[in-house]
Amino acid sequence: MIHIHRLALLATFIVVAALFALNSIGDLPERVATHFTASGAADGWTSREDYRLFILLSLITSPSLVVWLMAGLPRLTSGAGQIPNSKYWFAPERRHATESFLIGHAFWLGCMTLAVVYGIHISILRANATTPPILATERFFTMLVVYLLGLVWWLAAFLRHFSNTDKQI
Q1: Which of 30, 33, 108, 142 can bridge 42 by disulfide, Cβ–Cβ 3.0-4.6 Å?
Q2: Contact, 50 vs 99, CB < 8 A?
Q3: Could you give the count of Cα atoms lying within 13 Å of 8 in the half-sphere of its Cβ?
Q4: CA distance 148 to 12
Q5: Coil, strand or helix: which one is 37?
Q6: For residue 46, is it within any domain?
Q7: Tally of CB atoms within 10 A around 99
Q8: If residue 28 lies in a helix (H) or strand (E), which one and from where to where?
Q9: Tens digit of each residue's pLDDT (9 = 90 or more) over 110-136
Q10: Whole-prediction pTM
């Protein structure tokens, strides 16, 4: 039952992030800088309406997709090709605990992914608040490094959990 609460919490986070993003779109110019050089100068543009659709779809689909890939897909395939030692972990006596771990762990990945997509949106908002648009590359790359470190932590915890078939669940 706790995994239902986590999924509902993630859905709430997605809705809130989408509402915040949609509320801030009006602060953008009609022509939005969306791509930047390594030095932060804008070199790619789109319309505000296209950006609105893109960011909304990104905020909804990115975290939803990673959660489904990490928690839903292994349930359908009994983890074959996705979970180390999948026959052991999806044996009838361990299946429920394995699925609960996957949902809980996927929740964190979904939250991290939602945070980075929203962070990208904030970076684009801030960049377009200046004339000419300039991306704060240090902040942007720091955000990406923090996300990548989070992925490393997430993957290490995932592999550590599923590598040991002697643990009692």
Answers
A1: 33
A2: no
A3: 5
A4: 24
A5: coil
A6: yes
A7: 18
A8: none
A9: 999 999 999 999 999 999 999 999 999
A10: 0.89
Query: At 41, is the secondary structure helix, strand, or coil?
Result: strand
Residue 168 falls within a domain, yes or no?
no
Going along the chain, which residue ranges are E strands?
31-36, 42-47
Q: How far is the CA of 25 from the CAs of 34, 117, 119, 134, in angstroms?
A: 13, 15, 14, 17
Residue with tokens 């359908």: 76
Domain of residue 49, residue span? 2-163
The identity of residue 3, as a single letter, is H
Residue 102 belongs to some domain of the structure: yes
The string of pLDDT tens digits covering residues 102-111 is 999 999 999 9
104: CB partners within 8 A, 6+ apart: 2, 3, 6
pLDDT above 90: residue 61: yes
Residue identified by tokens 């074959």 is 80
**If DSSP codes are grouped into helix, strand and coil, which group holds residue 90?**
coil
Number of domains the chain is built from: 1
Question: Between these two residues, 26 and 166, which has the higher pLDDT value?
Answer: 26
How would you class 21 by CB atoms within 10 Å of its CB: exposed for 0-12, middle for 13-18, buried for 19 or more?
A: buried
- The backbone torsions φ and ψ at residue 32, rounded to the nearest 5 degrees and listed phi first, read -100, 130
Domain annotation covers residue 107: yes
Question: What's residue 54's pLDDT?
Answer: 97
d(CA 67, CA 83): 15
